[in-house]
Amino acid sequence: MSAGPLAPNRALRARFRAGEPTVGTFLGLGSVAAAEVCASTGLDWVLADLEHGGGDEAEVGAIVAAAGAYGTATLVRVEQPDRIRVGRVLDAGAAGIMLPRISSADEAAAALRHRLYPPEGDRGVATYNRAARWGGEMAALDAANDRAVGIVQIETAGAMDDLDAIAATPGADVLFVGPQDLSYALGVPRQFDAPAFQEALDRVVAACQKHGKVAGILTNDRSGAEAYLARGFKFIAIGSDATLLAATVRAALPRLGGAS
Questions:
Q1: 4-146+218-246 fold
Q2: Contact 44, 23 (CB under 8 A)
């Protein structure tokens, strides 16, 4: 049976394991149409942001279907790294989850268990959902533990202190730098050229290379993405639906007399 729009979700973790670079964007508008527009451009993945974005879990399934139709996988940043939050978005068909505000390897391991069925984890088992084709693909349960992506954010002082152990944590496929949060945690708010921030980036890449994980980061544009790819980051988020739309509108506006 063809996997249909779920196919890119089910293949994403294998792409990470193969060391393949991927590029995507955050979804903060809570709009399925915006997600589809982003997917239509050929992105590898889109990431629905339930921590800071305007949407909620109700849109995840529709985003999975809309993005998947273009061959784009859907990831979700959960609002809290709780069992019920993780399970609901995976049941809706998401490829995996991003965990915000993680400060230790123990926290990461505990939260990552929520994406796995027993005995490895504590995800609740149900089949009347998109992930199992509404009960039509029971075999999806057997492969789910191997397919579910785990992304741990590196954005706190605690995460930097426990960086090597987090990178060694099973299921932490991607260590994702939240640049703004991390800069604040390091005491150099938004000073992305500061030596402390640049050193932290190097440490994240080195820890990922040591443990066979993927280093990820958010940037604003193509030039930033290319620079980070050259530096060793392989999971690149370029802005969000909202910031990309706003930047495009600003660039298109004509300069009128007296306009600022």
A1: TIM Barrel (3.20.20)
A2: yes
